[in-house]
Specification:
82% of the residues lie in helices and 0% in strands. It has 16 helices and no strands.
């Protein structure tokens, strides 16, 4: 495809992902309420949330490899169709266990959407422009997931849980149509069958293992940050609207810096950018545990968003670079990366919850900072020792 066709495809894919994530994000804040209404106990509420990450983590690498062999578009469409069906299924749920099984199914559908869409972006990306392409895609993804809870909240206030679920169903249907009509898979790279073994080599490669470890640390850190900052704020006597302000501003800053961060990652050495971003993110999260008021926490939330905005595109660009260097198809690479994300999200909040009982409400935020920092150090050591991302990307014509 020509460069103009690539950009058009990237735009349509970004719109579709934005709409789909808006729909998925619209129901997340209300799942615990819905579960309680259906008789869920505390640990079943936990299962409702963890089931999604569990099934996504298991199926992401499988779907990624299958999309390398059979093409991307059919899996994206199947995942979006699954989101639509899952929303209607939640609407008809009669027991809390139906919510658990529905979320397990949603995790499988999620494995067909985000990692496969990322693989399409990676397929399109010219050498040396990975940062700006991923920055553009991340903007759409994060913006959709960030606006989703607000849109879902409006729908919930107007029409109850049915309103939020119908919003998810409608958004999934719109995204499905956008992909069906506007997206065609880029030309598949050659000799897929000969390269399938490289999907296993990903997990053996020292540099890629460092990137996966960093992604797990970042995901565990963000999971604890979102889950436990409300408790820290409540302990300081703050209203939940103030918590929403922290999280909202954090996401907005991160979104605004995705494209500039991606452009920097295409000009400067990517590994130092990714390591610095992750370390700064960890320091900010841990510091919130010791903050004593609204404005100190707000300042740290802004700084954390800036750190994530600058570090994430660089880290993801390194994933694409290393996967291509190893001769691995991008579905396999992005499937592995998504599994690392799912493991972090699955493990982080339960560990943080256990730490509350041991050391108080600030402990999970300290753990969040430690997890992000440990991931950064592992990436610096493992990926840096392989010489990956330590030099500036070659200057190319990116006009």
């Amino acid at each position: 495809m020509s460069a103009s066709e690539d950009k058009r495809l990237l735009f349509i894919l970004g719109v579709a992902v934005f709409v789909a994530m808006l729909g998925v994000g619209s129901i997340v804040p209300f799942l615990s309420i819905y579960g309680i209404e259906l008789g869920a106990s505390g640990w079943v509420i936990g299962l409702i949330f963890s089931a999604f990450s569990l099934s996504r983590g298991i199926f992401a690498p499988i779907v990624g490899m299958l999309s390398d062999r059979y093409g991307r578009k059919r899996f994206i469409l199947l995942g979006l169709m699954g989101y639509f069906a899952a929303a209607l299924g939640l609407l008809m749920a009669a027991t809390a266990w139906e919510l658990v099984f529905n979320r397990l199914a949603q995790g499988v559908f999620a494995a067909m959407v985000l990692p496969v869409c990322l693989a399409v972006v990676a397929d399109l990306t010219p050498k040396g422009q990975e940062g700006r392409y991923l920055g553009t895609f991340n903007t759409a993804f994060l913006l959709g997931f960030g606006i989703g809870p607000f849109a879902g909240g409006v729908a919930y206030d107007l029409w109850g849980m049915a309103g939020a679920l119908l919003l998810m169903a409608g958004a999934s249907a719109v995204a499905f149509l956008a992909v069906l009509i506007g997206v065609r898979s880029p030309k598949k790279t050659s000799q897929i069958k000969a390269k399938v073994g490289h999907s296993i080599d990903l997990y053996k490669d020292r540099a890629f293992l460092g990137l996966l470890t960093a992604r797990m640390g970042m995901a565990a850190s963000m999971g604890c940050f979102i889950a436990f900052i409300p408790l820290q704020a409540a302990a300081l006597g703050m209203a939940q609207s103030q918590v929403g302000t922290f999280l909202g501003v954090n996401v907005i800053v991160m979104v605004l810096l995705q494209r500039p961060g991606g452009a920097l990652a295409d000009r400067l050495p990517r590994l130092p950018l990714a390591v610095a971003g992750l370390l700064a993110s960890g320091i900010c999260k841990a510091s919130i545990a010791f903050a004593d008021g609204f404005w100190p926490i707000m300042a740290l939330a802004v700084a954390e968003g800036a750190a994530g905005g600058l570090g994430l595109p660089a880290m993801m660009a390194l994933v694409i670079d290393r996967g291509k260097d190893l001769g691995c198809e991008m579905g396999s690479a992005m499937g592995a990366f998504t599994t690392a994300l799912s493991i972090g999200v699955f493990v982080g909040p339960p560990v943080g919850g256990w730490m509350i009982n041991q050391w108080g409400v600030g402990a999970p935020l300290v753990f969040a900072g430690a997890a992000a920092s440990a991931g950064a150090i592992a990436m610096a050591f493992l990926t840096g020792s392989a010489g990956v991302g330590t030099r500036p990307v070659a200057k190319l014509d990116v006009t």
